[in-house]
Design goal:
membrane; mainly alpha
Length: 62
């Protein structure tokens, strides 16, 4: 029974990571980037977003 519960939670966790991982990483990058460079350009954030989406698409297989 514990193995079944563990599998269910792992499956939910993996699906949440694959759905919300790129968005959360992009938001974290934007927050950190603008904390360090408040007057910096905005263009690195979408480039990082595209990079994260490509990496998740290629290397994160469930």
């Amino acid at each position: 029974m514990m193995i079944l519960i563990k599998r269910i939670f792992m499956r939910i966790f993996r699906s949440l990571i694959s759905m919300y991982g790129p968005a959360l990483l992009t938001l974290a990058f934007a927050v950190v980037f603008f904390q360090f460079f408040p007057d910096g350009p905005i263009w690195p954030v979408p480039i990082f977003c595209i990079f994260v989406i490509v990496v998740f698409y290629r290397y994160v297989k469930w």
